[in-house]
Amino acid sequence: MSRAEVTVLGAGIFGLSVAWACVRRGARVRVIDPNGVAAGSSGGIVGALAPHTPERWTDKKQFQLDSLLMAKDFWDDVARASGLPTGYGRLGRLQPVADEAALALAKLRAGSARTLWGDAAEWRVEAAPDGWCPTAPMGQVIFDTLSARLHPRQACLALAGAIVEMGGEIMRDGAQEGAVVHATGVAGLASMSAQHTREVGNGVKGQAVLLDYAADGLPQLYFDGLHVVPHADGTVAIGSTSERYFEAPASTDAQLDDVLARAVAGVPLLGEAKIIARWAGVRPRARTRAPMLGQHPFEKGAYVVNGGFKIGFGMAPKIAQVMADLVLDGVDHIPPDFQAEKSL
């Protein structure tokens, strides 16, 4: 490839998505990551793409809704270009209703979803199904048709493959040419914090487990703070912890044992499933807890995309779009609360 027009530092979900959006618009793109594709938290196993509750609407919630609705076309295009699976499927989500107060709130939210989501998706309260369903004390569940799933590591590898197929480069080292986009996750937040008078963001550790259990085609489950996600490859992922303080970022421990025990208590069908993998990683969370996008606050002329935390994969399609608008066309469609200076 001749001189790059865009150099993206970081081959996680944000960096690869921005690179994909740029290369699709005809830009010459280079992605550089010394650790390789999906080496950090983007190489995880859970992949729950779930919406915020349809109430107290904000720009952040609207942005996420737009992104979730863009996701099918986005990931279908990636799969076609790369020839690789992403694990994407919009199969919905079941949540048990705990008590009368929760039932009343769920019905209220069903009405607000009709207003806020329109015909794009539904939030329904219905009888709990037999079999693949968490324990439902009221015999009722919330089923939303907006939630989707993908396999994080597979999706990142497919993105990298699609970028290369379109003429882009994925490198462990190389020259930074053209517009430079910093998508360096936890390390990037630490670097910005070191250049500022207070913490710009931090890493939050998560632990998850992958089971050998075939439930493809079934909705994901959410209960007791857990995401239970059936993948297309005959596995089920369960996660995750949320640890602000930790000593071993890549190690699993008794906290993951507790996650699995709670999942089995809610869905006894999983009790005999074989454990395939235990995973731990550190997710980047910006100070505002919103994604951190736009002009880099400490690197003149450069850009930043960081702070995906738990919603990075769900936000990626639209973040890729608005960052490509900014980097390639100089057009800023980034919501005010996502602007990088908000996290300073």
Arithmetic mean pLDDT: 96
- Kindly report the CATH topology of the largest domain: FAD/NAD(P)-binding domain
Q: Which consecutive residue ranges, at least 5 long each, have pLDDT under 50?
A: none
Strand content: 15-25%
Pfam family, one: DAO
GO molecular function, one term: oxidoreductase activity
Keywords: Oxidoreductase
GO cellular component, one term: cytoplasm
Folded structure, characterized:
The chain is α/β, with parallel strands linked by helices. The protein folds into three domains: about 5-85 and about 150-195 and about 285-344, FAD/NAD(P)-binding domain (3-Layer(bba) Sandwich); about 95-145, no CATH class; about 200-285, D-Amino Acid Oxidase, subunit A, domain 2 (D-Amino Acid Oxidase, Chain A, domain 2). It contains seven helices and 16 strands. The chain has helices at about 15-25, 60-80, 100-115, 150-165, 185-195, 255-265, 310-330; strands spanning about 5-10, 30, 50, 95, 125, 140-145, 150, 170, 180, 200-210, 220-225, 225-230, 235-240, 275-285, 290-295, 305. The strands form three sheets. It has an eight-stranded mixed beta sheet with strand order 5-6-4-11-12-13-10-14, with helices on both faces. α1 (about 15-25) runs parallel beside α4, α1 packs across α7 and α2 (about 60-80) crosses α7 (about 310-330). The two termini are about 35 Å apart. The mean pLDDT is about 95.
Task: List its traits.
single chain, 344 residues, alpha/beta, FAD/NAD(P)-binding domain, D-Amino Acid Oxidase, Chain A, domain 2, 16 strands, 23% strand, globular
